[in-house]
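Input record (one chain):
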Amino acid sequence: MEYQKVEIGPGQLLLDPNNYRFHDIKGYKEVKLKARYKEAGVQTRALSLLQETTAFDLDALRDSIRTNGFIPIEQIVVTPYDEDEGESKYLVIEGNRRSAVLTTLLADADAGAVDLADGIRQSLETITVVVLIGTEEEIQAYQRTLMGIRHVAGIREWGPYQQAKLVVEMFEEGGATLSSVAQKIGISSREVARRYRASKALRQMEEDEEFSEHAEPRLYAFFHEAVSQPKVRDWLGFNDENYKAENADARRLFFEILSPREVDGEKRAPKLTSANPQVRQLKDIVTKSHPLEILADPDKTFDDALQAAHADVVEDDEGVVERSLATTIGALKKPGLAYMEANERAKELWEEVLENIEKIKKIFPK
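The corresponding structure, as predicted from the sequence alone:
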C-alpha cells in the first residue's frame, strides 16, 4: 500500500454513496455498482443525505470553513476512481462532510449566494488530499482500520471544562463576539454562550472567600446545567452583562450544596452529586419557599427538598398542615409495589400510622 499527497480541486472529489454514516438513515439504499458512483443522481443523493441529516451538522462545519478557510489538519483521504473528460476523479473514504462543504461553498460563491474573502477562497479551490494506492483488498482493509480508529476508538475530545476554557479565551480576545467564536470552532452561538456563562459562574466560586477551596474543574458541569435552566438562572440572578450571579443568598446556597459540609462533627458529602439530573431538578425546588428551606437545612437531603417540591402544597406562612399532609402523601406513595413485601416491623409502623390517622380525624374540621 502506498500513500501520496496530491493537490486537487474539490470538483474532482466523489462523495461515497455508501458512507457508513448513512447506514442507519431511513430511506438509505446501497449503491451496489461502483461504476455508478460518479452519476449525478448518485452524488446528489449522497449530498442530500449529508445536508438534510441534522446529526451531521453541516451548517456548523460550513460556518467554520467559511470563516477560517480549509485547514488541512485532518486530511481528506481518497482512492483513485477514474478519469472524466480528462480530469482525474477520487472517491472519498474519509472526509465526506468536509468534501461536501467545500464543493457547496464554492458553488454558492460562484452563484453569488455567498461572498468569500480571497484568501478563504484560495484555500478551498486547491486542497491537498492523501491518495491510497494499492489493491482493492488492501484499500478495503486500510479503510476499515481507519474507520475504526477515527469513529470507533475515536479522537478523545476535551472535557467540558477544557472546552469552556478555550471558549473564554477566544471570546475575551479583542473584538470577538459569541457568533464569531461559534463560527470559528463550528458550534452554535447558544452553546458558546452557555460555556462562557458557566465558566464565569464557576469563576465566582473560585474567587469566593468561603467556598474557593471547594471550587474545582469537575464542578463545571454543574454550572453548565445551572445556567442552562431558566428558572435556576433567574433564581441565581445571573446577569448577562457582567456574567455574574447577583442574588447573594441564592449564590451562597448553590455554592454550599456543591461543597462538602460538616454537621455535628460528622463530615458529609455535597448535597449535589450529579449535574444531571439533580441540577435540572433544582428548578422544581428554587421556585418554592418551603422546599428551599429544606434544601438549606444541613440535616436535610436534596431528595427531601425535591420530595417537598413535588408535593401539592399551598404556599403560605400558615401552611404547616398542608405541607405536612402533602409530604406524608408523597412519602406513602414512594414505596409503591414494595408494600407487597413489607416485613413485620413495617406492618407495626403501618398500624401506628392508622392509629394517628384516627386521632387526627377526631379533631380535623369537617
